[in-house]
């Protein structure tokens, strides 16, 4: 049974309560790492060790050139010295919006630990070589799926199944095969979110949460970014 209570009527669903957060640890500007990427690395490993379910799941928000937003859950795949990496179809809605408006927001929510990490920044495509290296590490079925799916397009009931059959025949492998030569599609690859702002959030009683925000110092170099670190009011 959920801990959330509701009242319902014919035209309204109203949430009455929510579980109280009560984490024993604290975060302040004085006890976090000087780099938000290093601090994320620490928290991500702690989430893994705490057996958080899908710690790599993150909300990705994009917007059109006119500012209409959209969000979806995607999988975080890499943290490097520049930022956060995920992979997708370059013809998908998210990619089209990133082409129009190369800014994105990410949100990690680790419910079991009452922690959130919020990231804002500009985006860039990964090189073909970087995308290819990752693509080769994926299971055969997932690589075939990348070829079969015209992501975000309208399809008929059996279209996807038929396309999968076509690409299996084209490359001479089956989705269930353990090995096979399925190359990287030209329309598929990685995006990197280069952060300009990162916030770490820790749930506390009475909604008096700990919030620490990193803001990138304007003009600092991509290879050696400098950050201001502040505590925010909940």
The run of helices and strands is EEHEEEEHEEHHHEEE
Largest sheet: 9 strands, antiparallel
Fraction in beta strands: 25-35%
Measure the end-to-end span. Answer: 29 Å
Helix/strand-derived class?
alpha+beta
Strand element count: 11
Oligomer: single chain
Short précis:
With 234 residues, the protein is α+β, with helices and mostly antiparallel strands.
SSE order and pairing:
Layout: E1 6-9, E2 12-15, H1 36-49, E3 57-63, E4 69-75, E5 78-79, E6 84-89, H2 93-100, E7 103-110, E8 115-125, H3 128-137, H4 140-148, H5 159-171, E9 188-202, E10 210-216, E11 227-231
Antiparallel strand pairs: 1-2, 3-4, 3-7, 5-6, 6-9, 7-8, 8-9, 9-10, 10-11
Helix pairs in contact: 4-5
Task: Describe what you observe in this structure.
This protein has helices spanning 36-49, 93-100, 128-137, 140-148, 159-171; strands at 6-9, 12-15, 57-63, 69-75, 78-79, 84-89, 103-110, 115-125, 188-202, 210-216, 227-231. The longest helix is centred in the N-terminal third of the chain and has 14 residues, at 36-49. The strands form two sheets. Strands 3, 4, 5, 6, 7, 8, 9, 10 and 11 form a nine-stranded antiparallel β-sheet that branches. A two-stranded antiparallel sheet has the order 1-2. It is 23% helix and 32% strand. It is of the alpha+beta class and 234 residues long. The protein is globular.
Note the main attributes of this structure.
234 residues, alpha+beta
